[in-house]
Amino acid sequence: MSNQRQQDENSKQKQLEQFSVSDEGKALTTNQGLKVSEDEFSLKAGDRGPTLMEDFHFREKMTHFDHERIPERVVHARGFAAHGEFQVYESMKNYTKAGFLQDPSVKTPVFVRFSTVGGSRGSAETVRDARGFSTKFYTQEGNYDLVGNNIPVFFIQDAIKFPDLVHAIKPEPHHEMPQASTAHDTFWDFIANNQESAHMVMWAMSDRAIPRSLRMMEGFGVHTFRFVNEQGKSHFVKFHWKPVLGVHSLVWDEAQKIAGKDPDFHRRDLWESIDQGNFPEYELGVQLLTEDDEFKFDFDVLDPTKIWPEEEVPVKLIGKMTLNRNVDNVFAETEQVAFHPGHVVPGIDFSNDPLLQGRLFSYTDTQLIRLGGPNFHELPINRPVCPFHNNQRDGYGRQTINKGPVSYHRNSLASNTPAPVPEAEGGYAHYQEKVEGRKVRSRSDSFKDHFSQARLFWNSMSQPEKQHIIQAFSFELGKVMNKDVRQQVVDMFGNVNTKMASEIADNIGANPPQSEESQVTKSSPALSQLHTKMNPATRKVGVIAEHGVDSKELSMILDKLKAEGLQPEIISTKLSPLQGSGESLEVKYTFQTADSVMFDAIYFAGSKENSEPFNEQVRYFIREAFNHKKPIGAAQDGTHLLKEEKLKGQPGVITNEDSKTFVEAFTQAISQHRFWDR
What we know:
Decomposes hydrogen peroxide into water and oxygen; serves to protect cells from the toxic effects of hydrogen peroxide. By secondary structure, the protein is of the alpha/beta class. Helices cover 28% and strands 15% of the residues. α6 (198-204) runs parallel beside α11 (452-460) and α13 runs antiparallel to α14. The two termini are 56 Å apart.
């Protein structure tokens, strides 16, 4: 590929820069460029008189302010995004003719938006919920949107039920509660009466629904798509994003507390990581099936409530995405970005998944109302990097100034241009799948097994993960006021596992399930976070210290932790630099602005002063971190308090006296994430 083509592939940032403006050091003007002499006072008839209608500056300023908000997304309203690039590892020409999947030397610009699903824009980010994981690839063949979630399945099998699902999830309309939570009657009433949701609910009640970081969660395309190569051969494909840092989660008590301590926890983590040069990385994986293998499984490969177990259909890692640039303006980019699963390029096509088919209609309809008209593709964040030409004209927010009199196809005045492009020259052509059948409102019998894969998921969990699922069900159903709904849910999930459902029933005052559990015995190890990567890089360590500490010793330990890729941050009683027996050290937080839930591990450096008020605050941090199964460390001066708390010798509590061996042991403990055997 030529250098020019490479430059074109990286032109998205330059394109956005055309629309970027810095107001610093500039004269104040109206939107028409008129310099303004006064911006504090409206135009009046006398100092104390009425405001005059002729004050065009006041009118412009207030009108713009009155219209600064657009409707938030009905779902996925709470989101945050970043720019990056994608590179394929090897040519995928045997499977697809998609241009951005051909040349490993080409970096394709991307824009990724992460989001919660149920809450409003002002809700907290660590709530129990699925997470959106949507990627816009700015390719030379047009924009391609991979619009997915961090859970590989969905609640429903047919898009016609999507409004019902969302109505049930959202706050109940008579009192608008609860916000950003499924722990209420209407959601669980929907679940009990729409049992195709069983598999998705198992994921939603698992640790997958409370990720530690947006950098530490998987992404999935959810649906079955098609790859089509130059020869017209089709493969069914499912898409996966695998985080290089591994898949890690919060614990529920921690997630709830973070929602109060820092409702922006996930976006702050993403922003700071990119700002510090710790760029999040995700490998793109695909599962591929030939059309001949479509019916060889005990599930329907088009059913969006089913996974293709990785042990049966391996994931092939084909490229890496790196997020390396924060947005310049959240509204202009994150809020105005318009994703659509129908934004495809040659070589990527659709399957007959009925949920996907409905989404292909719905997304354009949504953008029309949210972004004010049909020209949302002209907003800078949505513009493709390749040229676009057609006979569409006018409408709200039109930015293109089309020259000439012709705006219709089949013409002589413009030599019948713009003209369609044959498939052989890069024009998009739909895969010619043979389709026949009667017009019916029904679904295939192959979609009717709702519990086998829910049972597969349960079988795949480690013991701590299973206990967390039971606790999640117990919390959510404990918030349900209608006893009949509680009982219906218990009976429903008795089809998954009788012991699990019986424990839930006992916790919420319901009767044991009467249903008969699925007899599925197989498991999929890939579904358990027990088998994820354990990479300590970028983990945050809360370092508790007080004035009088051996700052020379502490400085050495901090340097060693940083050398391991960790991010130590000092917490003390005051923000003034620590003064001890060595250099002064910067304090990042006080006990009032920090909490143990904001860190992956706690290190107590100790204090020569050893005051009781200080020690009591330390005890609080350490007890909470211990209860959340996190690594705890102390060296030299700090070990006495761990001994007093009877924590020395507990799993994940590191108290080596030698600084070098301490850092090695502490880093190893942090890489394990949690110590469930406490």
